[in-house]
Amino acid sequence: QVDITGIHGGYSDIDLPLQGRHQTVNLAVAVAAVEALTERELDPRAVQRGVSVVATPGRMERIDTGPTILVDGAHNPDGMRTLGAALAEEYPTTAWVLVLGVMKDKDLDQMLEPLKGRVREVIATAVESERAMDPALVAERATGLLGVPARAIPSPDLALVAAREGAGADGAVLVSGSLYLVGAIRSLALGSGRPDRNER
Questions:
Q1: What is the rounded CA–CA span in Å between residue 99 and residue 36?
Q2: Tell me: the pLDDT tens digits for 108-142?
Q3: Pairing assessment for the beta strands 10-14 and 150-152 based on DSSP bridges
Q4: Between 136 and which of 97, 149, 152, 161 could a Cys-Cys bridge form, CB atoms 3.0 to 4.6 Å apart?
């Protein structure tokens, strides 16, 4: 629940169905933008109705339980810092099995830094793309940077199976590093069996 002060009005006890404190900032910006466009205070009931149906697939999205599977499309250092801060606040004691896939042009070292101390194992994988970084290299760098065991499983579907097994029913799996990977894992976990074309 959040309170928002806009340009023209205030909105109290808004139920925001998204995870991460950064989403409260995003909501405040959205409210202020609509107020600026309309040059007036908004109907508080309309704000609540609109917010109640908002969704951000692939951004701090829990897609399964037993184990918990959380997907976040953080694919650069800034995104990973935001993710790390959100995990620290919302899952302070959780040790994640991280399914990680990144593109070759990304700064992997800077991306992994915010996850130090939050991950107990890394499973490196890759989507089918020439841009994808070799999972063996990702695993090697993750072990060195995070100080945890890491292994390479080239196929995202098999990586997800391994992560679920490694986490156990009471554990937690985090999928991140690439929007392409998050799209593939979402499709697999939510039952379509393969990535949707617009998620690859």
A1: 41
A2: 999 999 999 999 999 999 999 999 999 999 999 99
A3: unpaired
A4: 152
